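Appendix B. Raw example, untouched.
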Amino acid sequence: MKNNAIAYIQFPGSNTENETVNTLKRCGFDPQPHFWNDPSDHLNNFSGYVILGGFSFEDRSRSGIIASLEPVVNKIKTQAMLGKPVLGICNGAQILVESGLVPGTKNFDTVLALTDNKRLVDNKIVGTGYYNAWCYIKPNKNARSAFTKESGDVLRVPIAHAEGRFLVDKSLETLACEKNLITYHYCDKDGFSSKDFPTNPNGSFGNAAALSNVSGNVMAMMPHPERSLVGEADGIFKSMKEYIRSEDSFSYQALNYSAKKIQVKAFDKNKKTELLVSTIIADNEAISVERCINKLGYDVKIKKYVHYDISSEGDLDLKDILETDVLFNPSKEYITKIKNSKKKFTFLVRNLDDVHGQSILQALQHRFGFKGLLSIKRGVVWEININSVSPKKDVDIILNSHIFSNPVSQVCHEY
């Protein structure tokens, strides 16, 4: 079916629908909303799909992960394999990455991450966290893509994200370059690329602003082309329209790449200064993760704790550090411990590149004068209470849904 009907996919917390609708209409499409809990078969009637930006499920656990496990995404996978174009913008890109639609291995494995921004100059961190600004991007003219055929011009587009850094293993980085999977690169206004901020606003490998699958009909893009001021980035959507109208044959190709299984590492608690922090009120993030796992068919109760591992020269007076309120907010949180139980499984998840821990360390050293601090590692402990006849097997399956950790950007320890 080749028509002008495009579904824009909305999850709880999605936004930018107005900008997306206006842009799609301007480019000759008939945009129609499709909510995550609408009947998935309705998607058969569309010629293409846009997954909106925003904060699906409030980015709980990790940006895009809960949305990626919703049944509607399985239908999008089916439609993508038929050759229909799928564009994920910002949070939509994060959903495509977590679901495995990009870069699209045979089993849609998660082999890529969109993780914390890391703004670099001469390999030194000059900023982390949320960043909202205008940037420039240029298409990869060698890429096979439904979204780059209109022109090869430099585009000025806005960005607004905290977890927009494309991260891959070195082997996949080489393969992504060989296959030209990077569809758009960050550049300056003259089209020159640099890994340094501000040209590269988040530290993505290869200055990647967008990545596609091998077939070129699915693209995960962090900048917001739908938010351009006077349609400067409309070429992306017009290229999508040209692709839909094309009579070229299509054969879906999967990326030949083996995914990593979650490897749970042992965690040495000896000789460490540790803190576990819990919330005074209900933890909505843990509740959302619990509901997601329940929908996957497992009877679990989930708790979440923030974990700190602190090392210093000589004796550490933890009380002085706590009085700074840098580690947690005592009006909302408190220090706690986990009680052991045979029905309980606990896992510590840390980012491989712990920019949050580094930021806290710098604040305590430079703002509060704790010169003796050597490191602060921040992570999250997930506590799983499961009702199952085969609890270890089921917990292993839950871990490999990646609901708790992305195998590319994070490491998981048995705690």
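End of appendix B.
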